[in-house]
Specification:
It contains six helices and no strands. The protein has about 100 residues and is mainly α. It has a single domain (about 10-80), classed as 434 Repressor (Amino-terminal Domain), CATH 1.10.260. Helix 4 (about 45-50) crosses helix 5 (about 55-65).
């Protein structure tokens, strides 16, 4: 069986695959940051949902990158995990 990392390495040589993968990079970064904040706070998805007054399925969707959370949701997420929300703008790399 081929490992995912090997498939990714091979597929990354394809221009269309690489462009699509790179386009999702920020969404993966957001999902990773949300999961890390929740786990650092020692919360399950259900516990976090209760603190945010939302459903566990919503937490799963934002952590899975299926839904883009609003700024309000991110603020509630930060409050529930006792973290600080910080949004920054960075120059894009020249292509």
């Amino acid at each position: 069986m081929t490992k995912m990392s090997e498939l990714h390495r091979r597929w990354s040589q394809d221009r269309d695959y690489k462009a699509a993968y790179d386009a999702l990079g920020e969404e993966f970064d957001l999902a990773r940051a949300l999961i890390e904040a929740r786990t650092a706070a020692g919360l399950s998805q259900a516990q976090l949902a209760k603190r945010m007054k939302t459903s566990q399925s919503y937490i799963a969707r934002i952590e899975g990158g299926k839904v883009r959370p609003s700024t309000d949701a991110l603020e509630r997420f930060a409050a529930a995990t006792r973290t600080r929300l910080r949004i920054t703008f960075e120059p894009s790399s020249a292509k």
